[in-house]
Amino acid sequence: MPLPKPDPVAMTQALVRCPSVTPVEGGALDYLQSMLEPAGFACHRLVFSDAGTADVDNLFARLGSGRPHLCFAGHADVVPVGEASLWTHPPFSGAVHGGFLHGRGAVDMKGSIACFLAAALDLLVDPAMLHQGSVSFLITGDEEAAAVNGTVKVLQWMAANGHTPDHCLVGEPSNSEAIGDAIKIGRRGSLNGRVAVTGKQGHAAYPQLAANPLRGLVKICDAWQQLVLDEGTAHFAPSNLEVVSVDTDNAAYNVIPAKAEARINVRFNDTFTAASLEALLRQTAEAAVGGGKLALDMVFSGNAEAFVSTPGPLVETLTGAVAEVTGRQPELTTSGGTSDARFVKDFCPVVEFGLVNRTIHAVDERVPVSDLELLTKVYRRFIERYFAAASGG
Length: 393
Prior knowledge:
There is one protein chain. The chain is an alpha+beta fold. Helix content is 30%, strand content 24%. It is built from 9 helices and 19 strands. The chain has helices at 8-16, 28-36, 106-124, 151-160, 213-226, 274-289, 313-326, 341-344, 369-390, and strands at 42-48, 56-63, 69-75, 96-97, 100-102, 134-140, 167-170, 182-184, 186-187, 189-198, 202-203, 240-247, 255-256, 259-268, 295-304, 307-308, 331-333, 350-352, 366-368. The strands form 6 sheets. It has a 6-stranded mixed sheet with strand order 1-2-6-3-7-18, sandwiched between helices. A 4-stranded antiparallel sheet has the order 12-14-10-15, with helices on one face. A hairpin with a 2-residue loop joins β4 (96-97) and β5 (100-102). α3 (106-124) packs across α9. It is elongated and about 80 Å long. The chain starts with 7 loop residues before the first helix and ends with a helix. The relative contact order is 0.19.
């Protein structure tokens, strides 16, 4: 008996009803495995942890063993719902009302997982469709958290076990207004920084007996924000630095504090690496203070380098599928925050394409039912074009 046609709306509802607030699995991976295994996918549940971090449950599933190997990557974990009473519909109800499917993760990114699942199950239960290739799912459980026990470690496991993909599509919500607006071909890097300036505490009426660290901190922050990091590059907007926090832990008006601290975040393009950017910021801070009585302590961190997938066959195949189904010519962009594509790019070419990101992480996150149906059609056409090109069709 033929299997019923996969329904991306019902699949999205099933996933949204799993309370998989990061890094809790919440039943989402169990559901995906229950759908993939009957279709012939070999499923592997991969649990990773580090000292001081929670166990993270991940799923890798592959149909076929040949080349080319196309991987769909995504995350089943979601951010917290916030104040549940503010939601029009319960955040894990998956309620459909007024043409929208409501719930946490509906857009980011359970909806796109469901769409690719529906497209794959509709096409790939026929082994001939693969043309000797294979398709896989890499679904992680900690993208919205530390992102240390998910995609990065699954990719390492895949490489060690002969599952390195040839190409990857990440289903992050890439569009701003409508399906077909944009394909992300890269991401900016992200660098966090903390600078602590230590002086000498004293009475505000006797500044000559103290050393005010805020004087130095203000100079450093001003010097950093005056930097013109770059003018942008071929695929990236200019890098930007933002001071996001200034703190002295001082509630008194008549006390010069002993220490002042600021935190920054820099979103940078391929002009820099994290190391070269850190060197510039350290040099600028030290020059701004210029020695004296103040001591500096700077710490930088980040695991996201800027990257771009040079437009080629993968981008052209996806662009053609998007244009054919939606009638739109998608913009190739690197805007937005970071994603797990930053880990995938070390193993194979990667692009991102998913739903419209207007309500992600918000109260009343929701997706038009019509968008789920349209994205499924795009993914289906993309898979068809991908394997047809591989077979010379």
